[in-house]
Amino acid sequence: MNENENINAQDLTAEELSEILQVRRDKLDALKAAGQDPFQKVKYDFDTYTSDIINNFEAMEGSQVKIAGRMMSRRDMGKANFIDVADGKGRIQCYVRVDDVGEDCFNAFKKWDIGDIIGLSGKVFRTRRGEISIHVDSLELLAKSLLPLPEKYHGLKDTDTRYRQRYLDLIVNPEVKDTFIKRSQILREIRAYLDGKGFIEVDTPILVPLEIGASARPFVTHHNTLDMDMYLRIETELYLKRLIVGGMDRVYEVGRIFRNEGMDTKHNPEFTTVELYQAYTDYKGMMDLVEELYKQLAEKICGSLVISYQGNEIDLGHWERMTMVEAVKKYSGCDYNDWADDAAARACAKEHHVPVPDDATKGAVLAEFFDAYVEEKLIQPTFIYDYPVENSPLAKRKPDNPAFTERFEYFINATEFGNAFSELNDPIDQKERFERQVEAKRAADPNCRSEVDYDYVTALEYGLPPTGGLGFGVDRLVMLLTDSASIRDVLLFPTMKPLD
Q1: Radius of gyration of the chain (CA)
Q2: DSSP H helical segments within 158-312, as ranges?
Q3: Please, are residues 9 and 150 in contact by the beta-carbon 8 Å criterion?
Q4: Separation between Cα atoms, residue 3 and residue 113, nearest integer Å
Q5: pTM given for the model
Q6: How far is C-alpha 174 from the geometric centre of its chain's CA atoms?
Q7: What angle do CA 452, 458, 462 make, to 5 degrees?
Q8: Any idea what the Cα angle at residue 249 is, between residues 248 and 250, rounded to 5°?
Q9: Tens digits of per-residue pLDDT, 121-164?
Q10: For residue 313, what pLDDT is reported?
Q11: CB under 8 Å to 202, separation ≥6 — which residues?
Q12: Strands (E), 243-323
């Protein structure tokens, strides 16, 4: 079997694959026996990346360079070979000739395999066919690849294998690396924007002592020394608002969140959020912040306010703002203000085939109408604000209409991207809402261990200034700005069920 080409291991029989693996191990054993164990190499001083050469060829033509990377292909022409070498920033063709590197070195090189890590030096030139290349004068083996890379034309297409073996995905699908480089840039720009606005980045606990009353289901673990169950956090909100109480007026956290729930193209059990809180502003101040931040990210990452996402053209330069009542009326024709009471709201829901519980309130019915009629229509960036108090336990009531709260969510491409409040700072109201929330959870599930976070209520009793708060998912934002269809495409190591 020809080891000078990439191989699609899935197309091989077990016997053929075993033969290839044995050949590679035999080569390693021979190197070790000759005192040339490649795994003993500890350092290689390269001075150039392949992208430097490609991007600056006119200035670098004829220059002596030294690169290191993975051998991705070989074209054998007897006493001369063309190989492609990929490093952390790109890929370049290299010309290796026996007369230039010496017979011993060339003979050793001919035994190297696709996937081996090598270092080489030589002069930059352009071939007669016009391809930018390196004319090699020395090279050495730095690490041995004992497994074959996927066949070069079909690559690694199976998504399950790509997610499980992200290292292999990154080797053979260079565009994947671009997604994660952009993810890093997005996080850097978010931090730069918030830092520039006077926010302070902080860290809050990941292991927490309470299962709070929120609807998300937590992961449970046990602390042996304290002999107590603890929970992986489902949000960073309550700790961050404690800091506002303590006088840190603008704080944010880029935090890993854990929820023991379903998985799909938009949900992974662990994900990254940004939560931020600003004293002396409200939810409309948070709207302005979101709009400004997203415009800046689009310009910096995509170079335009108009981007393409999964076939839709999204204009991040224009944001619509509607109350939930206005949105439901626009897309369903039903007006919350026409419902005389809860029973009338439920009757309207039945007429429009919107399932609601028998005891649903007007606010709960409104939220169900939104889910049924509105969300799928929100392709362009849209703020939906003034949510019913029933599903907003941490948001401040509207002074002129206490059935609603100063809360918004924003939607792009029919997907919710973030959530914000004018934060509830009345400790008496907060305590009552927490207790009702926990009571409802325990009624629905007798084994539920949810508790009220009374320490947070105590913090509020010391005084939380009027505060605007915002939380948004980083992973969905990265999906949007990289045109990625699944959250697994923007997580280096998504949660996967073991193959066995």
Answers
A1: 29
A2: 159-164, 166-172, 174-196, 237-245, 283-297
A3: yes
A4: 7
A5: 0.91
A6: 18
A7: 150
A8: 100
A9: 999 999 999 999 999 999 999 999 999 888 654 557 788 888 99
A10: 97
A11: 240, 243, 248, 251, 252, 253
A12: 250-258, 270-279, 306-309, 312-315, 320-323
